[in-house]
Amino acid sequence: MAQAYTILGYKVNHALIGNSLETNWNGIEKAAEATFPTGPMRRFDKKDWDDLWGSQYDIVTDIACPFVPELIKAYPNAKVVIVQRSFDGWWESFRKNIKDKVFEFPKSNIIAFISTVFLGVRPIQSQRKALFGLFDVRSAAGINKERGREVYDEYFRNIREIVPPENRLEYKIGDGWEPLCKFLGVPVPEGVEFPRSNDGAALNDQTNTRLRMHMSNIGNLSKSGILGKILAVYVLLCGYMIYRWLLR
């Protein structure tokens, strides 16, 4: 869908497009903390959402999904395109391309540590907070298929309740350009086939490509020998934490 919006001339925010460092992960983390607070926290207002996405993009997709109810409050006249896949297909894609990569140990922890300390971004932490909030759990174990079914059904039911019919389109992959363009009020692109690269295999390829791009940013640190020192410090910290745990 992100590719379709781009073809139509919109500027789209999609977490699987572009360099990972171009994504405002720190802003997304603040949005997660404000949307799903675990303590006293000011909710995001329209200015906050403008600063995160509204002033830069016409359309937000995947990474914005946990925040859609809050975004609708900030932009009550926004058009919402609902693309609801079968739960089983969605869950398998979500599990492989998001959940497993965000919580994979120790790989995700190493990426989180290096990204935070040396690149100044927090992609792992921000996604974890958004997922914990969306699923209303406190650990990765709680993000399971059974809970996923509940969250999935409740999420789409809630969106349909808060978005008036005139502002939403129920779109199914395969419907082509006509309903989408009519809803958005734009002409159908002539001679352009509707993009169909959002299947599971393509999504996995995109996710892995984005991860490699992020790792290449980290890998640049090795040119000056910094990366080896970083990993050494990380190992020492892990060893120290285990030592303290054994002394408890």
TrEMBL record:
The keyword Transmembrane helix applies. This is Uncharacterized protein. It holds the Pfam family Sulfotransfer_4. The chain crosses the membrane at residues 226-246. Keywords: Membrane, Transmembrane, Transmembrane helix. The keyword Membrane applies.
